[in-house]
TrEMBL record:
<dbReference type="Pfam" id="PF03129">
    <property type="entry name" value="HGTP_anticodon"/>
</dbReference>
<dbReference type="GO" id="GO:0017101">
    <property type="term" value="C:aminoacyl-tRNA synthetase multienzyme complex"/>
</dbReference>
<keyword id="KW-0436">Ligase</keyword>
<dbReference type="InterPro" id="IPR004499">
    <property type="entry name" value="Pro-tRNA-ligase_IIa_arc-type"/>
</dbReference>
<dbReference type="InterPro" id="IPR016061">
    <property type="entry name" value="Pro-tRNA_ligase_II_C"/>
</dbReference>
<dbReference type="InterPro" id="IPR036621">
    <property type="entry name" value="Anticodon-bd_dom_sf"/>
</dbReference>
<keyword id="KW-0067">ATP-binding</keyword>
<keyword id="KW-0030">Aminoacyl-tRNA synthetase</keyword>
<keyword id="KW-0963">Cytoplasm</keyword>
<comment type="similarity">
    <text>Belongs to the class-II aminoacyl-tRNA synthetase family. ProS type 3 subfamily.</text>
</comment>
<keyword id="KW-0547">Nucleotide-binding</keyword>
<dbReference type="GO" id="GO:0006433">
    <property type="term" value="P:prolyl-tRNA aminoacylation"/>
</dbReference>
<dbReference type="InterPro" id="IPR004154">
    <property type="entry name" value="Anticodon-bd"/>
</dbReference>
<protein>
    <recommendedName>
        <fullName>Proline--tRNA ligase</fullName>
        <ecNumber>6.1.1.15</ecNumber>
    </recommendedName>
</protein>
<dbReference type="InterPro" id="IPR006195">
    <property type="entry name" value="aa-tRNA-synth_II"/>
</dbReference>
<dbReference type="Pfam" id="PF09180">
    <property type="entry name" value="ProRS-C_1"/>
</dbReference>
<keyword id="KW-0648">Protein biosynthesis</keyword>
Amino acid sequence: MSKESPGITVSKNKDFSEWYTQVVLKAELADYAPVKGLIVLRPDGYAIWESIRETLDKKFKSTGHKNGFLPVLIPESLLAKESDHFAGFNPEVFWVTHSGENEIGDRLALRPTSETLAYSMYSKWIQSWRDLPLKINFWNTALRAEIKATKPFLRTSEFLWQEGHTVHATQEEAEKEVMDILEIYKKTVQEELAIPVITGKKSDKEKFVGAVYTTTMESIMPDGKALQMGTSHFLGQNFSKPFEVKYLDKNNAETFAWQTSWGVSWRLIGAMIMVHGDDKGLVLPPRVAPIQIVIVPIYYNDKDADRVNAEADKVEKMLKDKGLRVHVDRRDQLTPGFKYNEWEMRGVPLRIEIGPKDLDKNKVMYATRHIKQKLDLPMDKIESEIDHILEKIQSEMFEAAKKMLADKTTQTSEYSEFRVALEKGCFVDAGWCGKKECEEKIKEDTMADIRVIPFGAGNSGKCVYCKGSSITNAIFGRAY
């Protein structure tokens, strides 16, 4: 890929992987770090993450969660306390073995996830029923050895995420927490990022290591691959017992607590790029766009420049006073056409063009990024109409993504049709007998796994693979 090329040089439909990489780099969301598997987040990429974080953080705090901080190093002896959990993560762990030239003894893991570290602390903090529920969220990074098949935002060795860890007195309260968090995730992804998701449970084979069960939200990308968008886990007492997270109840009896953990990562940014982007580049939903509106003044002489720039300043102030994120492109050395292409590549949802002819007619021209529609807007209607225009863009982007999900989901009870649908890049809704053997055989044969067992899933009556009685339908797909 040529770094000198200003625009996207491949089609999304012809070379999806290269298209995605070009959008990430050329829209200046991220760049590759000197260490393989790591990326550097640039200001626009970080601004999108900040928007997601602010939305979630507000929702978490409104439901009684507080933020904390955890260190990045975890002793190996601590990780080994929950053996199944540790075994699941061990292949991905980065280990610190030396301090300077000296061996440190007990190896230290660079945090792949924080259950063991958090719960060793929780066991100290929780003494009685009065200390519950304990609901803490951590905004941090995690490190996992993704070195071979890396892709910005989707698979990197270090990634930004949030991970929540809660402790409850009863199973019912903990299970309610699991579902409440999943609903917060679903609303945030659908309402802010304009990406529809399917929510439900993972199979036992696919659940989080150490969990009783895992709930998940899944979506499908334009190339037909599934992407896990976030998970919320019911841990039961699987961690409270080895880590002695227990309390004295109201009857002064010692009781092991019930726990949950949950998280989303900057993988959401990767999903947003893939779902909404086009051959021109990035397409951003207005609610998370670092710049929601770019104003491009158009003039060809000094006389026109003064009055056009004065009107651009006036419109900028009006929109910023409404709390909108606005930028005026005042670069005189570039043509309007060059500016249009650049801001389209960077995904700005709405462009306002102001030229002398527009001023003569007391109007502006606006262009929507998602469907490339250009319309006139009277000057005196800008303030009252702009919010409606942005909301319409947000809504239309979600509806388009919802249609893609529907178009790429098919239902069948025949294994031959099942395989054809997977080859076409679809989610397949099919019956499953509940046996791990069938799940593994399907994976071995087609590279597809059970992405989600939807809440309220139907039952077609027979397993798509073995033809035995099915216990439920599940959504199968090939994943990143």
